[in-house]
Design brief:
about 625 residues; alpha+beta
């Protein structure tokens, strides 16, 4: 006897559960039902063309639902295509089998790009807006027309129509939906004229066949929603129309439009260059059409990460959609397309450098961060554009080319803190560059490999302080005494005092601290605001580093207040006998130098400032030392 216990059994599928799964976890919402119908209709037209090249070019006609009003009866939603149609067997197999492809029989040999969807699961999306789906169809291959009726409870019926009815029907299929009248997804307006017209335009206006929507006020004159996909061609004849399209897309006129052509994946479109910089960290989402059908307006993975200065819109036949048909599958084809688009954008920038350098300067002025991101790792691009990149120098902001025209040496600081400390006292004949901005240091260090004869040197605070001119020997005793006396005043803030000569003469004091000192000061600030045990942890780390021996990195380091011996105020302080005035003056010079160097004031700095200001005000109104102390 046969072992029936091992006989295969079919899965039992709860159709309502499947519809709930579609609406909640696969599709973004019930509005996609019209996209699925458009896709299925387009597939059917493509199948008929494949069978018969002389077939009509294709038409999709949508008649929205009209609700009953007074004594007038309403009418259901209808979607009609003049595609290949279905026989009884095909309808039974395709419409009632979830996930079965509409690419059947000899049509399987057609290129995948000729078909957008899978009819079975696509039709199920209609259950999100209707409890009953009726499909009437007449096959282009002959045979009687059929009527298939599916219900949301998981049952369906199918019947063949008589010869007279078949003869009266055009070739193709019609889907009829009565709007759902209750339930969580009930919304009759989704099948109404206003919503249907908007959805049809959003999803299908670039399809390569006519898409028409019937208006209730003019049922005999349907509105054709198709428009020319101008973004797929970027030649001179369509230039103005393309920029106008970009203005509609961006909300402002684009800086430029770059044609995108990737034959390997059948991808064509336009990258619109933004006329203003996007928000920091923003990544431009791309709009992608699949065979003329909108896939999504929020595709994040089509562009390289550095290409945040463009907004891309493309039509493709070779990239694969996910099950929801709202994102792209992450595969080799997408990676290939992303790299090809990146190469196109680099070529566009190089062409600007060779043919329209003034336009390149305008572009870099808007999107310098994006260009620097590319140039930091792309020698070809960097060689073409690096001379036009703006840099901040102690002599003002200028391009690298302008800076090199003054000196053949690039002297730079590795951080903005270091630059701010010494920029004011650098010799104007040998300005320094602020390398503390994103990508600037990487680009500056690569300049010798990009431009012949350029020399690059890193500048530190200690180096520049050592380069400042010391006082004359005749003033050595006075300046040494001033250093010792002022250092004692600033001992509580762990700042040593040095006396040098530098320009400008009216800059009395300069606060300087190398990176290790700045790190220590940051730890002090963290310890002062950290609660409980964390303050102790930060303090322990600081003590360990401060006590480091020969192998340590932060032993015997301190910030410095550099007093300018050229300043009349500093010379007067050296001869001042009033200890209180001297102390408060040194403290105020210290705080003033901190603020000039963009350093935040710690609690002890603020206490020092408050005390110094209070005492100086007291002295100015006639209080003596005893009253102040």
């Amino acid at each position: 006897m046969p072992d029936h216990s091992r006989a295969p059994l079919p899965f039992q599928v709860d159709l309502r559960g499947v519809v709930d799964l579609l609406s909640r976890h696969i599709y973004s919402g019930p509005r996609v039902y019209l996209r699925e119908l458009l896709q299925n209709g387009r597939d059917a037209v493509a199948a008929r063309r494949a069978d018969d090249p002389t077939a009509p070019p294709g038409r999709l006609l949508i008649t929205p639902h009209v609700p009953p009003s007074g004594s007038e009866a309403g009418s259901p939603f209808r979607f009609r295509d003049d595609g290949v149609g279905l026989t009884r067997d095909e309808a039974a197999e395709l419409l009632a089998t979830v996930g079965r492809s509409s690419k059947r029989g000899d049509l399987d040999e057609l290129q995948r790009g000729d078909y957008l969807g899978r009819f079975g699961i696509g039709l199920l999306s209609c259950f999100m807006v209707a409890d009953t789906i009726t499909v009437r169809s007449r096959s282009a291959r002959g045979g009687p027309a059929i009527e298939w009726i599916g219900d949301a409870d998981g049952t369906f019926t199918i019947r063949e129509l008589d010869d007279a009815t078949t003869a009266a029907m055009p070739i193709g299929s019609e889907v009829v939906l009565d709007p759902r009248i209750d339930g969580p997804l009930h919304d009759g307006s989704l099948l109404g004229h206003g919503t249907v017209l908007g959805l049809a335009s959003t999803f299908g206006r670039f399809l390569d066949l006519d898409v028409e929507v019937v208006a209730p006020s003019a049922p005999d004159h349907p509105v054709r929603i198709n428009v020319d996909p101008v973004f797929r061609t970027a030649d001179a004849t369509t230039r103005e129309a393309l920029l106008a399209f970009g203005e509609d897309l961006l909300g402002t006129r684009p800086f430029d439009a770059v044609e995108i052509v990737v034959p390997g994946t059948g991808t064509r479109g336009t990258a619109f260059v933004l006329p203003s910089p996007p928000p920091p960290g923003a990544r431009q989402a791309s709009r992608v059409y699949l065979g003329g059908m909108l896939l999504s307006e929020q595709i994040d993975d089509l562009l390289p990460e550095w290409a945040f200065f463009v907004r891309c819109i493309v039509d493709t036949t070779g990239l694969r959609p996910t099950a929801s048909r709202e994102q792209l599958v992450q595969d080799d084809a997408l990676e290939f397309t992303r790299e090809a688009i990146g190469a196109t954008l680099r070529r566009w920038i190089l062409d600007l450098a060779r043919q329209r350098p003034h336009r390149l300067q305008e572009f870099i002025g808007v999107h310098q961060l994006g260009i620097k991101a590319i140039a930091a790792h792309d020698d070809d691009l960097a060689s073409a554009v690096v001379r036009w990149l703006p840099i901040e120098t102690s002599a003002g902001t200028m391009t690298i080319d302008e800076h090199l025209s003054q000196t053949g040496v690039i002297r730079y600081t590795a951080s903005r803190d270091e630059f701010r400390q010494i920029a004011a006292v650098v010799d104007p004949a040998s300005p320094i560059v602020n390398g503390g901005y994103v990508y600037d240091q990487e680009i500056l260090e690569r300049l010798p490999h990009l431009i012949d004869g350029v020399r690059v040197e890193r500048v530190t605070v200690a180096d520049e302080l050592d380069n400042l001119e010391p006082p004359h020997l005749d003033d050595l005793a006075a300046t040494t005494a001033l250093e010792d006396r002022a250092s004692r005043v600033l001992a509580e803030v762990e700042c040593q005092v040095s006396v040098r000569r530098y320009r400008p003469d009216d800059l009395a004091a300069l606060y300087v601290a190398d990176p290790s000192v700045l790190r220590r000061l940051e730890r002090h600030r963290a310890a002062s605001v950290a609660p409980g045990i964390w303050s102790q942890v930060v303090g322990a780390v600081d003590s360990f580093l401060a006590d480091a021996g020969p192998g340590g990195t932060e032993a015997d380091t301190a910030a410095r207040l550099c007093l300018n011996w050229n300043a009349a105020l500093v010379r007067r302080l050296a001869t001042l006998d009033d200890d209180l005035v001297f102390e408060r003056s040194i403290q105020l010079l210290y705080v003033q130098a901190l603020l000039a160097g963009h350093r935040p004031l710690e609690a002890r700095d603020r206490r020092m400032l408050d005390a110094a200001m209070t005492d100086l005000i007291g002295l100015s109104v006639g209080l003596d030392d005893k009253e102040l102390r």
